[in-house]
Amino acid sequence: MIYTVTLNPSIDYFIELDDFKVGELNRIKNDRKSPGGKGINVSTVLQNVGISSVALGFVGGFTGKFLVDTLTEKNIQTDFVAVEGDTRINVKLHSNIETEINGAGPKITSVELEQLFEKFNQLQKGDVLVLAGSIPSSLPSTLYQQVTNNLQDREVKVVVDATKDLLVEVLPYKPFLIKPNHHELGEIFGVEIKSAEEAIPYGKKLIEMGAEHVIVSMADKGSLLFVGNEVYSANIPDGKLINSVGAGDSVVAGFIASYSKNQNATEAFRFGATAGSATAYLEGLATEEKINELISQVQVKKL
């Protein structure tokens, strides 16, 4: 089974305006609400391509109920820990520029955290656990490190999609996949990375430091896959950028979905790269139909 973890999920409130004016009355042209959070995005894309998963994390209040109800309607299994505070609301404003206003989220107690760890203790050999996004301030900053360490001997495939220290700290425990973008890769090593050529030495270092697979998103320049001593590139298919939210999560979901079927890293990379573009070219997250429409344009090349 595949499990996704979103420690601080949200209701994402998407607002579309013709021209947003600060300090004035603005009238919404279109709006929609959907469950948000990187792990939840991964579960949603997995469901869209016919792969089951269980969404884990913390939810609370009327917003938490909306989140769980909406996922249930989409046939996504959930096993969240209930908390006292309300699940946060994040505002995604689409106008002449994209603006995001993210809520803080509820405080998580040690008892609630222990309940989540009890769920991790049920994972078995061959299961996949996706740790995605930031760690709330009320939780230990070493949480991902602790989880990855605990599961290493049980042969659970741990995927970590987070930034800087959160990524680096899990590397000694040999995560199955990590996915920094080129900016995050540069932050890890204190350099600026603008091209694939500049990214390659540092992607290789992440493999040397313990990661089994590394995908580096290069924005409009495509993406790179590092596995063993090999490096592969994938291009971006033609399309119009509509929504950047969740594109990186879709890469992770696509990779896991394909790998769970055929255990082929390069095929999984191609499917994941296509899923990322599919999300970017849609109002919501990648669908199987959109991925199938685009995948013939995506070529994976060994560098």
Verbal overview:
With 303 residues, the protein is α/β, with parallel strands linked by helices. 36% of the residues lie in helices and 23% in strands. It has ten helices and 15 strands. It has helices at residues 38-48, 61-73, 110-120, 143-152, 164-168, 182-189, 196-208, 247-262, 265-280, 288-294, and strands spanning 2-6, 10-16, 30-36, 54-59, 77-78, 81-82, 88-94, 98-101, 128-132, 157-161, 177-178, 213-217, 223-227, 230-234, 300-302. Strand 4 (54-59), helix 2 (61-73) and strand 5 (77-78) form a beta-alpha-beta unit. Helix 1 (38-48) crosses helix 8 (247-262) and helix 8 runs antiparallel to helix 9. The longest helix is centred in the last third of the chain and has 16 residues, at 247-262.
